[in-house]
Structures are given as structure tokens and as C-alpha cells.
User: Fold these one by one.
Assistant:
Number 1:
Amino acid sequence: MKILITYDISGTDTTAGSRRLRRIAKVCQDYGERVQYSVFECTVSEATYELLEAELLAEMDEKEDNLRIYRLIEPVEKHIKEFGKFKATNFEDPLII
Amino acid sequence: MKILITYDISGTDTTAGSRRLRRIAKVCQDYGERVQYSVFECTVSEATYELLEAELLAEMDEKEDNLRIYRLIEPVEKHIKEFGKFKATNFEDPLII
């Protein structure tokens, strides 16, 4: 199944916050693709989903952050519209916004 | 139909960037709810969707930002999992991350 993971992290100007975002991104990228700074599309089986969820919960700070996981309609490309700058962002750079 | 709007904005430390985020949020909130800093769930008819898309495109900077709109499976609450801090964020505050 295809899922969309969106993540609101608190305090990415701190070492702890930026580390959480980096680690969450790494977990997600093991299962899919980063499509925005804190939005990831992942492909998982039901069983793999359980592992992914457990890994995400281990990395996030439940008191500070918010994590949402949506099941997507497939095929995803028929149910998404995208506009603007596409994948040109270097997600490895420090976040300066 | 239910849609999810995710938005990567460039340069929210600038007047132009923060204004774009504020305006995009205002457009989305006319049709739904802000669930994360740059993630919105909206309910629209097919006709209303066209209006919403036009309004979003008018506000965004296609050279700088990225906008993704996903059609969601309904009922949404059966196809989403949420973890962590929930809606405690004051989205009106300036973004400091």
C-alpha cells in the first residue's frame, strides 16, 4: 500500500530537533521517497507498515512533534496534482526558512 | 471529496515568503482545516476544487514553492493515523524552528 507521512517537528533549530527530522527522514527514505521537506511517500506491506510505524514512534518526540500517516488512493499518480518547483530542493542542507 | 494539501514554501523568513504561507493558509482554511504547519485537509466538490486550485496557484510562487494536492480515501478518519502533539500549535505565531 502507499502511504503519505507528514511530520511537524518542533525546534529544528536545536540539535535535538534537527536530529529528529534527519532520523525521521532516514526512516521514511528506507521505505519510500521524500517529496517535500517534511512529507514522504512510502510503499509498504501491512507487515512492513507496522515496522515503519514503530521506527517512527521511536524517533519522534510525542510531546513536541506531530506525525500524520495517510493511506493513499492508488495509483497515486492519478490522485495527486503537483505544482511548482519539483524536487530541486536539497533536503540535506540545513533548514533555513 | 476530501483532499490533502501540502505546501513547501521558500523563504518564510522573508516578507514575501511569510505572506505567501499566510495567504495559502487562508485560502485552505476557507475550505477546510490546518492540521500541520503546512498541511491542510479540505472538503470540496469537484466545482469548488477548481476554484480552490485557481486560488492556490494565484498565491504561490511556482518558481520557488512546491504544492501537492492528494485526493484522500473516505472516510478519512479510517485511513489516517496521528501521533504526538495534536493541534496545540499556534499557527498564527511567527515560524521559529
Note: The interface with chain A takes residues 4, 6-13, 17, 35-39, 53, 56-57, 60-73, 76, 79-86, 89, 95-97 of chain B (CB under 8 Å).
Number 2:
Amino acid sequence: MRELGEFAVIDLINAGREQAAHVLLGPGDDAAVIAAPDGRFVVSTDMLVEGRHFRLDWSSPVEIGRKAIAQNAADIVAMGARPTAFVVALGCPADTAVPVITGLADGLWTEASRAGGSVAGGDLVHSEQLVISVTAFGDLGGQAAVTRSGARAGDVVAVAGELGWSAAGLAVLSSGADLSAPAFAHALATHRVPRPPYAAVLDLTGEVGPTALTDVSDGLLADLGHLAAASGVAVDVHSAALADPDLAAVARSLDADAAQWILAGGEDHAFAGTWAAGTSLPPGWRPIGVVGAGSGVTVDGTEPAGGTGWESFRGADVTPTGRKR
Amino acid sequence: MRELGEFAVIDLINAGREQAAHVLLGPGDDAAVIAAPDGRFVVSTDMLVEGRHFRLDWSSPVEIGRKAIAQNAADIVAMGARPTAFVVALGCPADTAVPVITGLADGLWTEASRAGGSVAGGDLVHSEQLVISVTAFGDLGGQAAVTRSGARAGDVVAVAGELGWSAAGLAVLSSGADLSAPAFAHALATHRVPRPPYAAVLDLTGEVGPTALTDVSDGLLADLGHLAAASGVAVDVHSAALADPDLAAVARSLDADAAQWILAGGEDHAFAGTWAAGTSLPPGWRPIGVVGAGSGVTVDGTEPAGGTGWESFRGADVTPTGRKR
């Protein structure tokens, strides 16, 4: 970085990129201009810090870039919106190798494209730690935003996407196990690049949608707890519906608890929603519990024993799984 | 931070805040929803890193928060757009005192309000350095964006706002001079909280606007250089029009060069624009040069001797003023 400088690296990052149709004016001016055909836009921002949210010895720059976009795109989709564009501020040490930066950029662009958008602009500054700050935008297409507050007693709780596999991948990486073992491949891949099932939400056009929706970023119980609090309801999760024999096999080989990964792991960026009773769930969704009157989240009718998920600064207090996110 | 944890501090930061009218859904869900009445929105993002863009022993948390918003709002206004909302991702060490965070938040909110918007959401994570990543949004009100590429030979170059005072403040702080000296008060205040003259652009309704516009963030010559390159023109700046006797007095007392602060200092976040010849400049704007055929930026017809402004990672190469931004 020190040799090329900010402007040359920015040129390198942006060379040959094609902006999504929503990006009316891309990088190179004081600001970008993005289409908001709906007259509103949805926005979410997340910061990823080296050593805390990712490690360069555990993931490639491309994987880190993809993960940074995926977790933000999942927030946009969790509002029922279609991702349109992203901006990315990047802080990095002066001795960062340029291929790290171009790899990150490639990952950012790959996942932005997968989510339906592009990287419309950014900032590149000098910092001691590698820090990636992504802001994501989406369009609601004239529909109401699907918030966390619409769940009603009697609704079915359903999930789209995998749960626990990212936590399993982190456990594998932390364990010193043989990373080349085929049994660990899916867990490692999921931890390195979560694959939010965008289509499970975005293809709902014409179907009956969820009454409330969130992405599972902090942990299933934690995120359902936020949803329950916002909606003024209680949620009970059925552990049998969450069982995953393949994940259980990984857990056994590490002497770990798959149920804890499923209930308190979060970085898979699955979607959790509530649906009016009697709704036939659309493709990709599976029932995992019910909404009742009251407050809080229970598992099979009882208070969860382990932690419920991730909270920054207090990580160790709430994540007995040892997640470092 | 460690004692309260992420969620309690977020509650503390957001308590009692009133969102601007453009913010349709504020913090607390997966994402925020912002009005874009124009069917487009303008977006800019900047990252500020402790020790590089600010120092807690040189500025209060409130001042740092204000500066973080001001420099982003200036980018929005420099497109001819009216700021509507901001999102802020904050990384901070676990031993950060909570009043630092609440002070930052107060500063963010104060300047957001001054610029016409509010803080619609954010992220709070654990990092080794204090890092503030602001993304700003604006609405063009049906007008075309004013880019850097519209300058034409024969246009007048004009500036709104002060130049060099932020660089002077940094020089005062770096010099070990008596910070309480009244002669330094304005320089220090400007460095700590730049005051972009938003109204000089936003009140142009009905007036003939600039053909090209930018904010002065990297340094006057550097930013005019970007504008000249984007427009395919040359810019000549008249040093006599930039002279500032008050700033010269500060420079003399530090044995520094006021002209260099004016030409290569940037963080005042003044606005520089080009106007068709014969336009009567609106209030707040003063002519400082002319646009010609060719390329590059000259001062009184000759190549500038000193540096032209700031570039991350290569700071020392291009800023003989010793700016640490």
C-alpha cells in the first residue's frame, strides 16, 4: 500500500468493474448516486475488524470480501428488500500487500453481484488493523418493509437456510484439527463465506409473506429474542425441528455440542420469520417453532441452558461456544 | 464498554433522539428505511481512524463526532444534494470509557442536525483502535447532480468557505505552542470542527449554479486537480485572491507558510466550484481563478512548488505541511 498509495490502489480496485443498473453515478466524484425507484431505500451498515470478525490466516481476502457483503446484504433482504448497491470503507496498515486489497475487492464485487448489486463507492484509509465497513442498500419495490415487530401469537416460526455450520467452521479452525478432512469442508466453507438464501425471501412475490422477518446474525435464540421483544410476543423453538445429523457428526468429532452451534451460532445468515398459522410455507422454509403470548424465547418450553448468541464486548459472557466473532 | 456491552450502549446512544422526517424507520431492526423522494439518493462514505484522522488528546469526543459527520455531509452537498440521513459504524477498544462513546454520539447528532438530517442507524464493534465510519445520504430534489466533470474553458473558479485554517490548527497542535493563546482560537476550532458552508450551495435554488463542484477535503490544489482531470480542463489559481492576512499572522507566529496551508490544506471542507463566465457569483462565493484549455492546476500560471494535498499511505510524500490526517 505504501508504495502505490491511495489513488493508484483505488484505480486498481475499480478497473474493469461494471456497475449494476441501479448505480447512476459510481466512484470518482464526491459521492455516488443510486436509484431508489421506490421513493425510499433500505440501508444497513456493519463493520468487520481483523482478528475479531475474520483472520487472514483462516480466510482468503476474497472470502473475507464476500462475507462482508453477504452479512450486509442479508440485513437488506431481511427487510424484504432487494439489494441494489454497496459502499465500502476500508482501513488497512501501510504494509498491507496490494493483492490482499485487490482480493478483498474481488470478493466484495463477487458477492455484491450475487446479491443483485455492485460496489458504488468507498474510502481507503490508513489504520493499524484491517477494518472493513460495508453499507448496503436495497429497494422495497413498493412493498412495506418486513420488520421484526409483526409477529402475532399463533404464528409459525420458520427458517430458511442453514444454522450452526458457520459456528462449526469456527470451532474447526480453533481446534487445531486437520483442516483438509472432508468432513470439515462444508463447515469451513460456510464459516468463510456464508451463503444467505436470498432467493427464499426475494422470490416470495405473489406468495403470502412473513409477518416478521430477521436474519440470523447474532444467533438463532438471540435474533428470535429481538424479534419477540419487538413484536411483544413469546417464541418457542422445537429442538427436534432443528436437529442436523451431519452437523452432529462434526460436533462429535470435536467433542462439541451441535445444538449450541444451531441455537447460538449466528454467522450463517439464515433467515428466520414468522408466518400466520395455516400459511403453506414457500420453498426453502421449514417450521421450527411457534409464537405465543408473553415474552422471551424458550426451547421446547424451557429456558435455554446455554448462551443465546453474540454481543460485542461481552462475547465471552454470552457465547459458551467460544465464538470469536 | 466491556461492562455495559454492545446492546446497552446502543440503547444509551439512541435514547431520546428524534429522527429527521426523512428517516421512515430508524435503529432497532435489521436495517433502516430512508425516504428518497427524488427517486435517487446520493451517498458518500468516509472512515476516520484514531491517531491518523483525530486524536482524543487534541479534540473532544463531541468535536470528533461533529467532524466525522461534517466531512461526509460536505461530500453530499458538493453534489448539489441536501443531506437527509447518516449511518455510523463505530469500532472501539473494550476499555473505551462510555462517555467517549456518548460524547461521539452527541457530536454525530449535533452536526447531522445542523446539516439537515439525523443518524438513522449504525453498528458498534470491538476494535483495537477507535474507528468511525460514516455513510451520508442526500436528496437531489429533482435536479441533476453537480459533478466534477462539468467545468469548461473560460469558467470562473470560485470558493465558498475558509481555506487553510484547519491545517493551521493542526500546525498549532503539533507545534507545542500555547493552545490558550487567543490568536490560535479560530485555527483550533476549525481543525476540531470544520464548518462546511452548506448554505452557500443549498440556498442556490433559483440561482445559476456551478458547472462543476467539489468539496475541499484533500487540499485545494489536489481537489481542483481532480476536478480539472474529470472535466478535461486546466485550472489556474490566483494566489492574491487567496491571501488571508489573519491566517498569515498565525503562520508567522509558527514560522510556517500560510500559502501552503491554503493551497494544500484540506480539512476545512470549503466548496470549490466553477461558474460560467459572466455569472454573478451568489452570496458566500469569491472568485479565485479561471478554467482554461489543457490539463493540470497552476498557481499564477506556474506549477505549484509545494505539495498539492493529502493522499492516504503516502502522506509524507505529498504534504510538506506535515499534516497527519
Note: Chain A has a mean pLDDT of 92.
